Structure formats: C-alpha cells, structure tokens
Amino acid sequence: MNYLRVAIVAFALLFAGCNAQKNVLYIQGIESGTEISLPEEYIIRLKPLDQITVVVNSKNPELATPFNSSSSYNALVGTVANTATESNLQVLTIDEEGYINLPIIGKIQCAGLTRMELAHNIENRIREAGYIADPQVNVRFANLTISVVGEVNKPGRYDIERDQLSIFEALALAGDMTIYGSREDVAIIREQNGKNIITKLDLRNPECLSSDYYYLEQNDVIIVSPNKYKAATAEINQNRTFWISITSTAISLATLLLTILL
Predict the structure, then answer these.
(1) Angle, helices 228-261/2-14, rounded to nearest 10 degrees
(2) ∠ CA 231-235-237 to the nearest 5 degrees?
(3) How far apart (Å, rounded) are the C-alpha atoms in residues 49 and 94?
(4) Beta-ladder partners of 89
(5) In 3D, which of 108, 107, 104 has the Cα closest to residue 129?
(6) In what helix (H) or strand (E) does residue 128 lie, and over which residues does it extend?
(7) Distance, CA of 164 to CA of 40 (rounded, Å)
(8) With contact defined as beta carbons under 8 Å apart, do 60 and 77 qualify?
(9) What are the E-state strand segments in 63-208?
(10) If residue 64 lies in a helix (H) or strand (E), which one and from where to where?
(11) Which of 21, 108, 220, 230 could be joined to 226 by an S-S link, Cβ 3.0–4.6 Å?
(12) Cβ distance 195 to 240 under 8 Å?
C-alpha cells in the first residue's frame, strides 16, 4: 500500500508543471488598470507595551531641554542617538493602561493614537500650559517589528521604520516566498485584546487587497505554509527514509546472525 501511495504522489508531481504558473502568481484574474479599494487610511496605532521615543524641540533649545530630561522617563530600556541635538533619547514603554509619563507635563494617553496624533497632543499640552509657544514634537517607534516564517527565502524577525506596511512588503523583506510556498494559505497571527487571532489570506485573490489584514500591525507573525507539492515531496522522502532504515536494520541483523552461526 505504501508503494502505491508513493507511486500516485510521484505521478501527480510529473504533471505539477501544468499548474505551476497558477500556483506561484499573486493577484490573479484581473486586468491591467483594475481599481481595488484598499483599507482606508490605515496607519499603525500605538498599543500598550510599545516602546517609543519622544523629543521636544523649540526655536529656543533651552526651553525644550527640561522636556527631554531622562530623570522622569518611565521604563528605561535603552538609548538612541539624536543627531539633531547630540543628546541621548530615552526609550519609553507605554504602560498597560496605555499611558507614558513625560517630564513636566506628566501622564499622557497613547494607546489607540498614531505617532502624529500623539505628537500633536503633546504639543497642545505644552502650548496650553504656557511652557513653550512653538513646541515641535517628534515621536518614533523604538520596537516596531514583524515576523515572517515558513516557506520564504529569509525567515526571521524584521524591524520596520514605516507606519504602514502591507503583507506583500513584508514578504519582500523576507526575500519573497519560495516556489513551494502556498500563496492561497498565508496565515497572520495578530494579538487583539489579549488573544492571538489567526486569519488566513489567499494572496492569489484580488480581494486580499481590501482585507483588514492587508496592512500589518506591530508584532504580527506571517506564516507561509508549504504547498501540496512540497508536502508530497516530504512524504516521499519520509517513506524513503523509513524503508532505508528498515532495510539497513534487516541487513545488520542478518549479518549478526550469520556471524553467530559461522
């Protein structure tokens, strides 16, 4: 029975080339110039436990200095060089309630905001309190990463510096799928409300472009499954290894018995 299964799989592999193009192409079945709506204005938003840097600037640098003091920064985990001021920036961790604690102005809500929205809120707080008339705030991510594993050429964890990253751009970071990657079965693991949610996309289907998972979020994990041809090859190799092992063991036992008898 095992020989029959191997023969069937091998026969199927002989004709795999007929469907090879269909299996490796992205976004199939559309004409050039076709318009597809993307998720509207998607930008990565801050979450609890994200790490960020906040820099306050002004035309009068002395006024901004107290806001950039490290003495009141919470959850210090490292420093980043600020080429503009030649000082060290402290990395802030957003607490589980979604706040950071800044010098002078104290706690400020972060969770659910974009970087630009947070910077705007900090500027308003400083301006309204009368500390600086012309504050300019720069907020940057310090730990924005995604992971890509499975049938890709360069699996791994990747740091990203943009507020918007599509799944195709993530695959490009990982060197694209191998020829054995399943374009129709790409899983994305995303943490939401303390739970890991798994969603699968068919990257051959143009509808994937309008999915809520087309643009990635921080800490997303992309898993590319092997296609049926890779799975079939793995089964053949496994069966071959099994029978080689059995044969080798049988030869060893036969040799041992002949040695004992002679």
Answers:
(1) 140
(2) 115
(3) 5
(4) 80
(5) 104
(6) helix 115-128
(7) 12
(8) no
(9) 79-82, 87-90, 92-93, 99-102, 106-109, 136-141, 145-150, 156-159, 181-192, 195-201
(10) helix 61-64
(11) 230
(12) no
- Given a contact cutoff of 8 angstroms between Cβ atoms, the answer to whether 208 and 35 are in contact is no
The one-letter amino acid code at 106 reads G
| Whole-structure pTM value | 0.71
CA dist 144 and 141 (Å) reads 6
pLDDT, one tens digit per residue, over 1-46 is 555 454 444 444 444 444 555 567 888 888 787 887 777 778 999 9
C-alpha span between 45 and 98 (Å, rounded): 11
Please give the average per-residue pLDDT across 60-88, as a whole number: 57
Which of these, 184, 231, 244, lies nearest to 13 by C-alpha position? Answer: 231
Separation of alpha carbons 203 and 130, rounded Å: 52
Beta bridge partners of 148: 156, 222
Instruction: Give the CA angle between residues 256, 260, 262 to the nearest 5°.
Output: 115
Phi, psi for residue 31 in degrees, rounded to 5: -90, 155
- How many angstroms separate the CA atoms of 45 and 179, rounded? 34
3-state helix, strand, coil in the chain (%, to 5): 35, 25, 40
**Under 8 Å between Cβ of 218 and 141:** yes
Q: How confident is the model at residue 219 (pLDDT cuts 50, 70, 90)?
A: very high
Token output for 99: 């706040």
Token duo for residue 93: 């961790």
Radius of gyration of the chain (CA): 28
- What are 122-177's pLDDT values in tens digits? 999 999 999 999 999 999 999 899 999 999 999 999 998 888 999 999 999 999 99
